[in-house]
Amino acid sequence: MVLIGGQPGIGKSTLLLQMALSLKAKVLYVSGEESEEQIKMRAERLGLAGANCFILTETNASRVLVLAEELQPDLVVIDSIQTLFVPYIDSMPGSISQVRECAGELQRFAKTSNVPVFIIGHITKDGAIAGPKLLEHIVDAVLQFEGDQNYAYRILRTLKNRFGSTDELGIYEMQAVGLREVSNPSELLLSQKEEELSGSAIGATIEGLRPMLIETQALVSKAVYGTPQRSATGFDLRRLSMLLAVLEKRGGFPMAMNDVFLNIAGGIRVDDPAIDLAIVCALISSLEDVAVPANICFAGEVGLSGEIRAVNRIEQRIQEADRLGFKAIYLSKYNIKGLDTSRYGIRIHALARIEELYTALFV
């Protein structure tokens, strides 16, 4: 059993309908939210026609399981678990008792018939799967489908997997004809600009098993009001406050009297600590109004003492930067121990502290 969660309108139904129509196996697609006509309209928009995809619009879980045993499909898709109900429980569909019982019935069907079941689940305003936590314990895998609705990119992230790694990650682009797999996300997440501008730096990050180069954008300006503003999009605001304090204390940069705005380009969220060095460089670049060359990137975690700490899987980050044509990469000197730098065409600069970063790029 696989549970897929995500915000309304993010593309969960589209993703699973594309999968159902693309497979050659016999698929039973159960929808409690849309009619047959609506599903057909979406399938026509996707340009797919699956002869082995059977559509059932039903909310009674007991009837769904009876029809599934008659049809004997190779795969079952439930859209969504919050619309199903069992008649012997006196509560509304979507209630905790109904979701728990429907999930239990589907689990028994999946285990006894050996048929995979994909379940779409709604999420709460806090981003957690709606319904009882038991729902996540019952299923074998939990996938989170996330992304900003103002951008075309979607990330399918593994949160739980009983049969493999949780480091798997898929990146898609929402188009008029459905979701398209993005094989090289780095090129899409790097902005194409005619001239070099201050406040921009490229960070080499790892998302799941995949290395990605992401542009960080910072704006540092004089505070007009008494209390300086702090704003971060796609990055932890508390982490940004820590980096600003390190720059103020260890580097002597007057960040406390300036408004600071930070944005991770592309509308995605980054939690990799290796992005710290790129963010620090973008902040200094904006403060000094000196552009960072577009052909260099950064990978390093910044500590409270101003030291640049080593990050994991540095070779994958270097290879990705080298493949995309970057001329130089700045990283921690503790990362180059045992690293054969002659294997790469990119120049590797080792740094120990943020003061060395400032001297190397802005002096």
Describe this structure in words.
It is a single chain. The protein folds into two domains: 2-183, 3-Layer(aba) Sandwich (Rossmann fold), CATH 3.40.50.300; 188-362, 2-Layer Sandwich (Ribosomal Protein S5, domain 2). It contains ten helices and 18 strands. It has helices at 12-22, 36-46, 61-71, 96-113, 134-138, 185-189, 237-250, 276-288, 314-323, 354-362; strands at 2-6, 27-31, 53-56, 75-79, 117-121, 141-146, 153-161, 169-175, 178-181, 200-207, 210-222, 230-233, 258-264, 296-299, 301-302, 308-309, 328-332, 347-351. It has a nine-stranded mixed beta sheet with strand order 3-2-4-5-1-6-7-8-9, with helices on both faces. It has a seven-stranded mixed beta sheet with strand order 12-13-11-10-14-17-18. Strands 15-16 form a two-stranded antiparallel sheet. A hairpin with a 5-residue loop joins β15 (301-302) and β16 (308-309). The radius of gyration is 24 Å and the shape is elongated. The relative contact order is 0.10. The model has no long low-confidence stretch (mean pLDDT 89).
